[in-house]
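Design a sequence for this backbone.
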């Protein structure tokens, strides 16, 4: 029912002035209603374009609720055009609109994604050796990075601050480095923690490294294609700072008090360019200082924009009884600034209700009092349902009273729900699955004495028997359980016996250890001695037989488990498409037979399934961020983090226990503030800094003094109490927890019915309450605040509107979920009802995602470029960034496959795409009906040249037969339903990217009506819980096929589900399918570009010259141009330097290439000639030659140094394979190593990484400058290699004349002085490329043989360099000379390169002309 607006609400909702509207709205003041009315006013009365409306909410849930409430008054298509979202969703839209590279967001409630990311890259961030960071400490890193971003840290200043104050002891560094070197990189955490000096040094080292690593972290996010929420805001602020004009001219910000500094700067930019700007909030409810919202931005607006601000105070409270309002106002008033909230809060309900307080001296007695009170209220009809009561605490997790209460609720079967408390780990199904995963990844030696905390507690053989917890995934026979229990007991007894012997032997003392766990408190020497004689009980198939397990069903179970264990360590697994999530599903299906149709469709199992689904989502996140094959990695991640995870329970039933922060925005008939006391609620300020304290002087956006920071902390704690009080509608109870107090009982005893009210009040005032401020507050309101001492009859019945149970019948569907249901209802249930994750590796989906995100980014860049095509060069630059991002690491495509995608994308923009003006990409929509709401995202909204607005959906497919097209059409018709009322859609298109065809679709009202009927049918089916499996050819590719497919003895797969056609409703649309036309322009408009051959790191292409895409005429052309990769340096278009003229050629003739055959030259001809040479029995390949040269041993002096150098060389190669950035850093260290100080090897390896792996031409150039300046000796071949690189980089980089001159001078100077450096070549330790170490030991090439092998390599490099630079005349002449060589391999290589040149040139006549001229350029 609509609420009649009061006077101030009307002023706020219908304000029509030109000032910034600031609405300060107290608790229960109806601010959401005012916000809705203001939006309606702007749309209906002011006639603003809905697409100019930006509404920022604090949570995604709040945004969705606002949309729902608007839907009753505004057309849904109008709402779809507004941007109603959180600040982070808005930032994502802004970044997408400017074509910012589509990144994965590292943000979720558990910080899981960010933890996985940081754990993967912590070494790259410098957390190694003395700065070693444990997984469980990563949360500290997250908090500090977030603080650095929110308050704009001055990193250099902070680093200097730490270095001046926090010394890292050299003895600590030496100890850690030595220990880790001797123990395979293990950090000596236990030893460090037992040494106070080391412990302090470790803290200082971490403190410093966290500060130093922040800039690298920001860069790492960019490199890997990820972004966190804080960086998303910063990028948006940077963009708006340069481009302040946006489409958003009417802006409303809800919960303005929770704004952080970066958000405020964004809002300031927006408001200066807005037609209307409204903020709503309550500074008294600002309780998110830990997230950066620690400044009063209402006050900031008044102080800085006073003459431009129109202020309104909403002071009428529609929520609470009068006494609750009065009590809470008395509490908060002392901290209000002068002028804030001039009008005191007034109750609209005109309801007088006392408030109440309890006092207890222990957690147990407090819990007992509250329990008895709740039970009384329910049993005596004072409340209708337990969910009317909310118990609010400063912390539930660490509250002793909360734990006692939960136990009482469980014992007495009183329903309750705890919000935000980690309880997932304690669920038996979670410990059950962790037990199995542990077995799969456990590689412990049977004599290893290293046990994890879990292995010492519950993760023993008894985890399989149900002795430690209820094992739910499988059920062994009683006989097997007894055997395993006995084996574990015997093992523990044996360990304890051996401990006594070992301790006596090592320490010559008698042991007094009496528990198995206690044994592991012994030091390394004792434990090693113990396990010389004790074997750990490992569940191998052989051991099971040896222990006497005979039950065939149990043995079969363990054989399956061990078979899976063997599989995940095999090459077959690494080569397969199976991922860790597939292994997780296999455990639940193949091994345990746990997940099947009956179990999943039984509503009683919903909670268990949802808990297992939470783990599946962790596996999914680990796959996309770290590694999709590393089961041990994800297991270790869970061991460190699962203790902080919560279950997904129904929040609408039972007594509600939660923190105050979780209660924000909620209201309850009865509210109990739990354990108000001196130190914890409100929380006491502690005059000490955290381990990694950041002084305000190092934070640009946090310029407050220490005194101001303390005051802000104390005031925020008071606001937390205020928020808790103001959640109450009818009844507020303040439960105080005090220290033991002898006077308390005496004061209670003095209270009796013979006293007058005033006399009782005086005694009550003396009774100590939990906190000084609470004590004074209750005493001030003692006439209305009733002491509850076991007598709960004085509490009245609640009369307010009661909490509504969640409407289980109303469905929130996404288009993705709709597609999943139509494809397979059972899959829909697993994905969207239970929330299981599906494996990431499915090839077509990942390739489709790659193409989709690529098109979205390019379209947004075109849109931000005034709808002008950005050019092939920029399109290919975007392509390369996507290709090289970690986002698509699992998309294992060959270069040729990537080149096909390049051409597919370029083809689209040169043909169909050129005629479409981009209006919006990724447009969201919602369709709301009686029983469901369907939301989705439209790929592209466009306008044609004749002004028609249309919808385009991209399909990365070759399939355009009617069987496929009918489903595509259904999808765009769904989009049409969602957008048709907001936009006059006159055109519908589907573009098949791989097929390169556009499908134009007719608009048909009958088809629209039929589709609406189908949507209704889907919602009814889901509501009726119809989740049968729909068997078709796609089942084999489904990540859940193990659940619903059973393999019979005959080997055929059959589905054990009801085959009844439950999807018949979808046929009606297909029977009335709208007409469509498939348009193909391929033969008229395009000639594919030829890109560099596989393995060539250059991205140069030969193909179409830049084309005016507005031109309607075909652009197929034979003209060849080079489109280069977008340079790293900024291109100076006005200062393009002409290429230098070639030197004068000298004519030569080759005897090996007969002129009479010129007319027959073809790629096949040259390849055939090469193959003939290869068949010669004397032919030796380059690979064979290189390997052959190492066959003989030659004497080696300084063998120890040579060994060390060989090991360092191999370490570098390994790093190159695993981590390019770490390899770069390693080679930087080698440059100063005594064995490499005169060796060019580290520089050369860096150049190769920069070119082939990191695509960083500028760093490549700088490394060459470095090697030339170093004066390290380069022989002739080495010098040629670096000179060739210089030539290539001059072409690729946008260099100034000064840059080129510096390099030329360095090279010239080096050549003049090179001979005097030659003595370095003969140092006692040879250069790295002459050393090889393998199973045969260290071998060394003689200098002569080394020069021979180098010559082979550089002969190839010189010619290939000409081809890369497209200097074909030089290349042809060079290979003509090679044809005169007596070395068969050179002639073979020349013919192969002639074939390559002819392929690249695509002009046989020009090729023959160059041959006829017989040109060769003199070096």
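Sequence:
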């Amino acid at each position: 029912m609509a609420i009649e607006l009061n006077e101030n609400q009307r002023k706020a909702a219908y304000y029509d002035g030109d000032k910034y509207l600031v609405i300060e709205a107290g608790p229960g003041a109806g601010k959401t209603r005012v916000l809705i009315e203001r939006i309606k006013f702007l749309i209906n009365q002011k006639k603003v374009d809905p697409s100019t409306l930006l509404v920022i909410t604090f949570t995604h849930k709040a945004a969705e609720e606002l949309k729902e409430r608007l839907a009753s008054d505004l057309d849904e298509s109008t709402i779809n055009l507004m941007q109603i979202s959180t600040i982070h969703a808005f930032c994502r839209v802004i970044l997408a609109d400017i074509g910012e590279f589509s990144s994965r967001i590292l943000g979720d409630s558990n910080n899981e994604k960010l933890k996985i990311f940081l754990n993967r890259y912590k070494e790259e961030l410098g957390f190694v050796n003395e700065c070693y960071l444990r997984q469980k400490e990563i949360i500290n890193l997250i908090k500090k990075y977030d603080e650095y971003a929110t308050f704009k840290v001055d990193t250099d200043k902070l680093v200097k601050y730490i270095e001046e104050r926090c010394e890292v002891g050299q003895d600590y560094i030496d100890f850690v480095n030595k220990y880790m070197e001797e123990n395979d990189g293990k950090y000596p955490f236990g030893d460090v923690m037992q040494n106070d000096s080391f412990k302090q040094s470790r803290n200082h080292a971490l403190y410093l490294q966290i500060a130093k690593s922040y800039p690298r972290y920001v860069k790492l996010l960019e490199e890997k294609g990820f972004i966190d929420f804080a960086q998303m805001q910063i990028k948006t602020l940077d963009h708006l700072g340069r481009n302040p004009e946006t489409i958003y001219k009417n802006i409303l910000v809800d919960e303005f008090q929770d704004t952080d500094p970066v958000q405020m700067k964004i809002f300031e930019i927006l408001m200066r360019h807005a037609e209307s700007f409204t903020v709503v909030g309550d500074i008294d409810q600002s309780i998110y200082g830990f997230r950066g919202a620690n400044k009063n931005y209402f006050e900031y607006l008044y102080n800085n924009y006073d003459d431009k601000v129109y202020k309104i105070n909403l002071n009428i409270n529609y929520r609470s009884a009068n006494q609750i309002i009065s009590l809470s106002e008395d509490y908060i008033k002392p901290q209000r600034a002068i002028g804030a909230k001039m009008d005191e809060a007034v109750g609209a309900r005109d309801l007088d209700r006392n408030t109440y307080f309890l006092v207890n001296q222990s957690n147990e007695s407090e819990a007992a009092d509250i329990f008895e009170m709740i039970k009384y209220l329910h049993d005596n009809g004072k409340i209708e349902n337990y969910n009317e009561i909310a118990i609010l605490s400063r912390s539930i997790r660490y509250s002793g009273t909360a734990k006692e209460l939960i136990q009482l609720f469980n014992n007495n079967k009183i329903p309750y729900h705890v919000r935000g408390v980690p309880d997932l780990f304690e669920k038996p199904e979670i410990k059950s699955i962790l037990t199995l995963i542990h077995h799969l990844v456990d590689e412990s030696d049977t004599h290893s004495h290293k046990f994890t905390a879990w292995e010492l507690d519950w993760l023993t053989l008894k985890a399989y028997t149900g002795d430690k917890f209820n094992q739910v995934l499988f059920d062994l026979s009683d006989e097997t359980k007894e055997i395993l229990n006995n084996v574990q007991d015997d093992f523990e007894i044996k360990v304890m016996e051996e401990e006594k012997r070992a301790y006596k032997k090592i320490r010559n003392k008698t042991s007094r250890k009496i528990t198995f766990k206690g044994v592991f408190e012994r030091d390394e020497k004792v434990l090693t001695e113990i396990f010389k004689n004790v074997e750990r009980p490992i569940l191998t198939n052989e051991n099971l037989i040896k222990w006497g397990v005979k039950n065939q069903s149990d043995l079969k179970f363990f054989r399956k488990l061990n078979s899976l264990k063997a599989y995940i360590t095999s090459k077959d697994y690494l080569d397969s498409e199976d991922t860790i999530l597939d292994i997780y599903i296999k455990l639940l299906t193949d091994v345990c037979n746990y997940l099947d149709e009956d179990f999943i469709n039984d509503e009683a199992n919903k909670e268990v399934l949802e808990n297992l689904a939470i783990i599946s989502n962790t596996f999914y996140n680990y796959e996309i961020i770290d590694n999709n094959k590393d089961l041990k990695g994800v297991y270790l991640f869970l061991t460190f983090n699962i203790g902080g995870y919560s279950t997904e329970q129904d929040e609408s039933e039972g007594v509600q226990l939660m923190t105050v922060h979780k209660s924000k925005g909620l209201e309850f008939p009865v509210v109990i503030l739990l354990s108000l006391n001196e130190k914890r609620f409100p929380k006491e300020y502690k005059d000490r800094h955290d381990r990694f304290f950041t002084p305000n002087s190092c934070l640009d956006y946090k310029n407050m003094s220490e005194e101001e920071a303390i005051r802000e902390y104390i005031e925020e704690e008071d606001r937390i109490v205020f928020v808790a009080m103001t959640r109450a509608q009818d009844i507020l109870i303040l439960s105080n927890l005090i220290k033991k107090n002898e006077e308390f009982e005496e004061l209670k005893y003095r209270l009796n019915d013979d006293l007058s009210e005033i006399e009782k009040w005086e005694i009550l005032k003396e009774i100590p309450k939990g906190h000084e401020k609470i004590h004074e507050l209750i005493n001030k309101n003692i006439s209305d605040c009733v002491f509850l001492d076991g007598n709960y009859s004085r509490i009245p019945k609640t009369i307010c509107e009661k909490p509504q149970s969640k409407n289980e019948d109303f469905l929130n569907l996404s288009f993705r979920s709709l597609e999943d249901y139509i494809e397979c209802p059972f899959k829909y249930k697993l994905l969207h009802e239970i929330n299981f994750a599906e494996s990431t590796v499915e090839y077509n989906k990942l390739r489709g995602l790659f193409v989709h995100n690529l098109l979205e980014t390019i379209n947004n860049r075109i849109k931000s470029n005034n709808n002008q095509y950005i050019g092939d060069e920029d399109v290919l630059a975007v392509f390369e960034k996507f290709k090289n991002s970690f986002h698509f690491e699992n998309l294992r495509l060959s270069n040729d496959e990537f080149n096909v995608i390049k051409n597919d994308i370029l083809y689209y923009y040169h043909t169909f795409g050129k005629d479409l003006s981009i209006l919006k990409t990724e447009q969201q929509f919602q369709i709301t009906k009686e029983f469901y709401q369907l939301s989705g995202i439209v790929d592209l909204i466009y306008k044609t040249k004749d002004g028609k607005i249309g919808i385009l959906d991209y399909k990365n497919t070759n399939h355009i037969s009617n069987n496929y097209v009918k489903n595509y059409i259904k999808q765009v018709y769904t989009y049409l339903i969602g957008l048709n009322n907001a936009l006059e859609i006159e055109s519908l298109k589907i573009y098949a990217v791989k097929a390169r065809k556009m499908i134009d679709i007719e608009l048909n009202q009958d088809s629209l009506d039929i589709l609406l009927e189908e949507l209704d049918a889907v919602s009814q089916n889901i509501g009726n819980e119809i989740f049968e499996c729909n068997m078709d050819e796609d089942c084999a590719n489904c990540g859940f096929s193990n659940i619903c497919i059973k393999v019979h003895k005959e080997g055929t797969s059959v589905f054990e589900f009801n085959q009844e056609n439950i999807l018949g409703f979808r046929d009606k649309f297909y029977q009335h399918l709208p007409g469509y036309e498939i348009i193909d322009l391929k033969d008229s408009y395009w000639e594919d570009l030829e890109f560099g051959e596989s393995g060539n790191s250059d991205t140069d292409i030969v193909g179409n010259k830049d084309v005016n895409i507005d031109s309607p005429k075909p652009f197929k052309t034979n003209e060849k141009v080079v489109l280069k990769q977008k340079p790293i340096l900024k291109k100076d278009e006005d200062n393009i330097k002409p290429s230098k003229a070639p030197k004068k050629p000298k004519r030569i003739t080759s005897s090996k290439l007969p002129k009479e055959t010129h007319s027959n030259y073809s790629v096949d001809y040259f390849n055939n000639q090469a193959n003939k040479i290869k068949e010669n029995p004397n032919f030796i390949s380059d690979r064979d030659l290189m390997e052959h040269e190492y066959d003989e041993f030659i004497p080696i002096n300084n063998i120890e140094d040579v060994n060390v150098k060989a090991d360092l060389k191999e370490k570098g190669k390994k790093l190159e394979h695993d981590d390019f950035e770490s390899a770069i850093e390693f080679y930087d260290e080698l440059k100063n190593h005594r064995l490499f100080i005169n060796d060019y090897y580290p520089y050369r390896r860096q150049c190769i990484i920069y070119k082939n792996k990191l695509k960083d031409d500028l760093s490549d150039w700088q490394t060459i400058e470095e090697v030339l300046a170093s004066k390290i000796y380069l022989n002739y071949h080495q010098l040629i290699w670096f000179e060739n690189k210089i030539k290539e980089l001059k072409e690729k980089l946008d260099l100034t004349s000064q840059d080129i001159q510096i390099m030329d001078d360095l090279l010239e100077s080096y050549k003049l002085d090179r001979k005097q450096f030659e003595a370095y070549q003969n140092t006692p330790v040879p250069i790295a490329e002459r050393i090889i170490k393998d199973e045969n030991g260290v071998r060394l090439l003689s200098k002569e043989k080394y020069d021979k092998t180098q010559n082979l390599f550089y002969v190839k490099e010189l010619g290939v360099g000409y081809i890369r630079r497209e200097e074909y005349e030089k290349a042809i002449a060079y290979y003509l000379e090679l044809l005169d060589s007596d070395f068969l391999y050179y002639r073979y290589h020349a013919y192969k390169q002639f074939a390559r040149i002819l392929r690249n040139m695509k002009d046989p006549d020009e090729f023959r002309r160059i041959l006829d001229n017989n040109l060769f350029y003199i070096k």
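The radius of gyration is 37 Å.
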